[in-house]
Each structure stands twice: as structure tokens, then as C-alpha cells.
Input
Amino acid sequence: MKRRFDLIKEFIINTIETNDEISYEKLNNLAVDQLKNTFDGKVTWYIVLVKLDLEAGNILERIPKTNPHWLRMKK
Output
């Protein structure tokens, strides 16, 4: 599980740093498109899990007052 977690964590961080800000929906869709053929787990489940962990660790944040919610790296 740690290997999968780390792979998704790296994907999320790299994607957000590349885009500065991104909607959760777009992040999820990109992950599924790019990882579905090589990832041996449920991509969408890991995106949720890792995103919440990164929010709890103050690494990324939801942008206030966005609906659907957008994400960015914590400043």
C-alpha cells in the first residue's frame, strides 16, 4: 500500500505544482487517464485518500469558496 500511496502522492504534488491550481475533478480525471493502465489499485480511491492526507499535513489546501473545490499547494 505504501508504494501505491507514494506514487499517487508524487502524482498529485507534481500535477498541482505544474498547474498552480487545479480542480479536484480535473486532478482525478488526469490521474485516471495517466495511471489506469499501470496502477494496480483503484486510482480514484487513492486520490481521495492521499489528497486528504496532504491536506491534513498542510502540504496542499482547498481554495476557499470554490465549488466544485479547487486545490493548490499550501503557502
Notes: The first helix runs from residue 2 to 19. The longest strand covers residues 70-73.
